[in-house]
């Protein structure tokens, strides 16, 4: 006799009986086989509580013969509460429609199971919802809603990100990175530029730039002639400092140091200007002396001094002064390179003051040589023993200023200035001479059109080259290393070292390793 459930299953959509043309016929068949009506055996208002009560009664009272046969075909599964959950889970699992299953079920049995599953839906048995994909889970949307909106990235920060691997918050736990809330800030208000750097300490002696700002303000414009900071120059500087103050307020800074250099040192109204800065921006700047400025420049460039070097002359050509430090390392190298400074000097001349005295717009070879002679006379008063060079590699120059970075950019013929390609580059003595000669052959418009110089530096770059030439004549060296870093990096390095962040982080890493 043919099994009434063995035929082909009609195709339909939905879980309601109204959508099936043979819904009543199937229920009549089921009722005949069980000896009672379907509605009597299974109320339409079934839920999980009803199944729990059903499991507590004897199976002879709760199951029809048809239900028993179905349970036997499915492997004798009972109706206890755990099995109900298992059945719910089975409802949402996909079943292959072709081919034999590993447990030996026939295609007729699969059709029967699909048929019964549709009827269980008719009985009102709640179906376990399919797990949502990660992108559709409510908690995923909640996490996405809590994420901060992306902020605008400055050119300096974008360059920094290209230089370094991105640091994610979850990567701090077991890596070489310290805790992400340790932010330090350094601001340098010089004669020509206003610069800000906000950074995070990372590996010992290193840090990751979080935000940066730089603007040419020419605070020392006209200072050599009048001895005072002009109103226009002070307004330009205060406008830049307002931006710096906004950046500092938007972050939780653990420690900061804000300095002013030669322009405020020389100006008669330097202290008065800094009081005005406090009132209008809230920033309190300190005027540092020239020795401190020289030591900070050395600290900022310490990573560029090779291990093989025994002597180095580091110079920082500023807008109103130029700092020079003679470093003798010897066999034992201290953690702070500034401790190796044996002699230093600060020349009261920079690119702004020298160009104002000699003219920086139209510079002839004679004018250029006159600038070199003035700086060379200043250097002749610097009492420093000659540097003995035993073999190649023992001695080299390090230049940290806009002058040397500009020379490097012109030498590389960059379409636009790129710190990644300039910082740390080596230039031979012949290459430096060639670049100086090229710049001297250009007129003002040609210098202004060069992307690595621009109109803001076109009248200053040759004055910087004259200072560089005087230094090279005093300390001849076969090579020079270019540093696109300086006082800000020195400030950050010293603050982090004083706070012991790298030492504390090594201790934390050791504690985590012991716990692990």
Written description of the protein model:
This protein has a six-stranded mixed beta sheet, sandwiched between helices. It has helices spanning 23-34, 38-41, 48-56, 59-62, 65-73, 81-91, 107-122, 138-146, 155-163, 223-226, 231-249, 262-266, 270-281, 290-300, 351-358, 365-380, 402-412, 419-422, 429-441, 444-449, 461-474, 487-499, 501-515, and strands at residues 184-189, 193-201, 207-216, 255-260, 286-287, 311-317, 322-328, 341-347, 395-399, 426-428, 479-482. The protein starts with 22 loop residues before the first helix and ends with a helix. The model is unreliable at 1-61, 76-105, 115-153, 156-179 and 511-516 (pLDDT under 50). The protein is α/β, with parallel strands linked by helices and 516 residues long. Helix 15 (351-358) crosses helix 21 (461-474). Among the domains are: 31-89, no CATH class; 176-290, Nucleotidyltransferase, domain 5; 307-484, 2-Layer Sandwich (Nucleotidyltransferase, domain 5).
């Amino acid at each position: 006799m043919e099994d009434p459930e063995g035929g082909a299953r009609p195709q339909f959509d939905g879980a309601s009986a109204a959508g099936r043309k043979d819904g009543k016929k199937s229920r009549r068949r089921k009722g005949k086989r069980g000896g009672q009506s379907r509605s009597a055996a299974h109320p339409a208002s079934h839920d999980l509580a009803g199944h729990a009560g059903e499991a507590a009664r004897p199976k002879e009272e709760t199951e029809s013969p048809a239900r028993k046969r179905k349970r036997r075909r499915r492997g004798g599964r009972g109706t206890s509460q755990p099995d109900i959950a298992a059945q719910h889970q089975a409802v949402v699992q996909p079943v292959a429609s072709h081919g034999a299953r590993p447990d030996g079920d026939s295609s007729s049995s699969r059709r029967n199971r699909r048929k019964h599953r549709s009827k269980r839906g008719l009985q009102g048995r709640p179906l376990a919802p399919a797990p949502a994909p990660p992108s559709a889970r409510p908690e995923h949307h909640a996490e996405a809603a809590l994420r901060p909106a992306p902020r605008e990235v400055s050119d300096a920060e974008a360059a920094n990100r290209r230089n370094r691997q991105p640091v994610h918050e979850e990567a701090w736990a077991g890596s070489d990175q310290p805790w992400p809330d340790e932010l330090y800030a350094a601001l340098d208000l010089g004669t020509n530029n206003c610069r800000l750097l906000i950074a995070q300490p990372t590996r010992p002696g290193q840090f990751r730039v979080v935000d940066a700002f730089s603007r040419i303000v020419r605070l020392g414009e006209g200072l050599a002639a009048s001895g005072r900071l002009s109103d226009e120059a002070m307004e330009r500087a205060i406008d830049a400092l307002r931006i710096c103050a906004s950046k500092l307020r938007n972050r939780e800074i653990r420690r900061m140091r804000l300095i002013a250099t030669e322009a405020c040192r020389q100006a008669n109204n330097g202290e008065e200007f800094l009081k005005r800065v406090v009132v209008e921006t809230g920033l309190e700047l300190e005027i540092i002396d020239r020795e401190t400025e020289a030591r900070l420049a050395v600290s900022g460039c310490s990573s560029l001094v090779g291990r093989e070097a025994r002597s180095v002359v580091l110079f920082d050509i500023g807008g109103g002064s130029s700092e020079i430090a003679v470093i003798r390392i010897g066999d034992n190298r201290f953690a702070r390179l500034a401790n190796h400074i044996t002699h230093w000097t600060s020349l009261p001349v920079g690119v702004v003051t020298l160009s104002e005295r000699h003219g920086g717009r139209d510079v002839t070879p004679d004018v250029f040589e006159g600038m070199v002679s003035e700086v060379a006379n200043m250097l002749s008063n610097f009492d420093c023993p000659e540097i003995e060079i035993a073999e190649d590699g023992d001695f080299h120059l390090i230049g940290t200023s806009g002058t040397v970075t500009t020379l490097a950019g012109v030498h590389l013929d960059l379409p636009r200035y790129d710190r990644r390609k300039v910082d740390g580059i080596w230039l031979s003595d012949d290459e430096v001479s060639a670049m100086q000669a090229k710049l001297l052959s250009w007129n003002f418009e040609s210098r202004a059109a060069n992307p690595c110089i621009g109109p803001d530096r076109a009248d200053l770059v040759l004055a910087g080259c004259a200072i560089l030439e005087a230094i090279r004549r005093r300390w001849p060296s076969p090579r020079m290393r270019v540093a696109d870093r300086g006082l800000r990096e020195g400030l950050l390095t010293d603050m982090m070292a004083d706070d012991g962040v790298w030492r504390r982080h090594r201790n934390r890493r050791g504690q985590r390793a012991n716990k692990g």
